[in-house]
Amino acid sequence: MHETVGAYALGILDDAEATSFEEHLAGCEWCAGQLDELAGMGPMLAALADLPDSQGTPAIGESLSAKPAPRLVERLVDEVSERRALKRRRGFYLVAAAAALIIGGPLAVLAVNGGSGGDSGGTVVASSAEAAFETMNDKVSATDPETKVDAVVAMEGKTWGTDTVLQLKGVKGPLKCSLVAVGKNGARETLSSWSVSEWGYGIPDAKTDEAKNPLYVRGGAAFTPNEIDHFEVMTFDGKRLVEVKA
């Protein structure tokens, strides 16, 4: 559900989807923090979308219903500039993703390949996940003897819980997977979910760099680091690919 926070902030979910996300939001401090950072982005993007180009033709205009006054546009842009300056490390990529959602169509990127992607947007997010993985000093790893899937989980404590980046190797698809944190009290929390393509990730003898490179997945837990017993990489049909002790 974590990837839904941007769409919820922009008000583009239908009633059922919004209700489902609100139920998730009630118990997820990470999403609550992201939603707070994205507050007000919907009206701002709608305002920017209504600005005319050099020929006086609206760039998006008719696809958005909000039509604020020009003075409001100027104020909103100033507010966004100030927000970016104060929260650049986390806010920049969220703002970029929200803008792409409005301007370029649906976008959902939580899991990214470490190699150079075909488009600049994917490369930026991949660099962010890899960079975070490299800077996190607390790392735990394991390789499952049966599935041969190798996982390294990097962790960093935050005021809201635990920031994590998963490095995954030796997994082939097509699969849909989740990273789950299991607390010492037995509680389970899904940190992120993603799809594995047919060729997989982190396959040493693969024919393409895309398949040879590991997959990096970033997520967040409400648990603090010392509350986590272990991590599990699970398929959507309930199969555990690898377990990593925290």
UniProtKB/TrEMBL annotation:
The chain crosses the membrane at residues 91-112. It comes from the Bacteria. Residues 5-32 form the Putative zinc-finger domain. This is RNA polymerase subunit sigma. Gene3D superfamilies: Anti-sigma factor, zinc-finger domain. It holds the Pfam family zf-HC2. Keywords: Membrane, Transcription, Transcription regulation, Transmembrane, Transmembrane helix.
